[in-house]
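Summary for the lay section of the report: proteins are chains of building blocks that fold into shapes. Here we show the chain for Helix-turn-helix transcriptional regulator and then a coded description of the shape we predicted for it.
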Amino acid sequence: MSKEFSYTIEEVSQLLKVSKLTLYDLVKKGELPVFRVGRQMRIDANDLNTYINRQKNNQSTMAQPFEPKRETKDPFSIVISGQDMVLDILGRYIERNSPYHALRSYTGSLNSLISMYNGKMDIVSLHMFDGYTGEYNVPYVKKILVSRPYILLNLLSRRAGFYVKKGNPLNLTSWTDLRRKDIRIINREKGSGARILLDEQLRINEIPSGEIIGYDQEETNHLSVASAISTGMADIGVGIEKAAKIVGIDFIPLITERYDLVMIKNDSTELLINTVKNILSSSQFRKEIDSLGDYDTSITGEIIYETF
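The coded shape description reads as follows.
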């Protein structure tokens, strides 16, 4: 590998046959250097070679007497997980107002929450609907972060619903329309908030997923789903309003979802939590979010749930 090249996290994941979460953990620990081009993290080929050779050397000396390793983790390098563009703005505010360096993961809500339980995420954004309670996020956090002290803060609220073709030619208006045999859906990946919302609505309305054409066809972000509708690959998808406007298709609002942030509480995260609280409560941050349109900041910064 030449030092003239660099790789995305996705490309290194494919090269090494490991998950992206494993790579984010290595970055967070300072074991794998990265640099950023805009909002994208990249890994220099020379640094990747160095890491691979170091792992080979470590394996070849495993039989040698144990020597303590010096801790290389940067305590001020944090990972923010989620896909909404507002998280990029939040990362910029965090870097401007604290010593933290913000890295981004674009993993879905459920998988990110599980990674937080395993100590691999610092700020996780959530929009997971629970059909049994009609509540967002809290039921899932209580089950997954069991025994962990945490705080759940509201980032914003936004509308979720159907992406449909311009003019809504099939007149799709409600969850029960998913029973129709003349429509093809494009789905989101398992663990994403949009997938959870769809699956919960199918359960509530007693619609078997196996009877929905296209249910197994998945995309990994809102824009890709919206684009699939725009190009005619599918008739309907589930997502947020913002992506529909970016792509130029119609949007049928069905629910207002609460988009929250969760952080683990301990001595080492106190500064981070206070930093995020101050940012969310600032009028400057809210004005910037409001200027984007399609977001509601009326309860931004409110503590939704907290354990002690």
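Put simply, here is one thing we learned. The chain has a mean pLDDT of 90.
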